[in-house]
Amino acid sequence: MAEGTIKRLTDRGFGFIDTGTGEDIFFHNSNLEGVSYDDLQEGQRVSYTEGSGPKGPRAENVKVI
Fold it and tell me: What pTM was computed for the model?
């Protein structure tokens, strides 16, 4: 699993993870495991697997470390 930091959260139920490679990856609240979207905070460390969505790469199986 890859690791990153939550860079931005929106009020629409999705956000972006800073991968540490200079590129961010999208995630949707339906891809969270073991945590509620409302409990997330920017700057939190997360692990995820990279998947593919309709608009490109997306984070799946997102878990707070």
Answer: 0.93
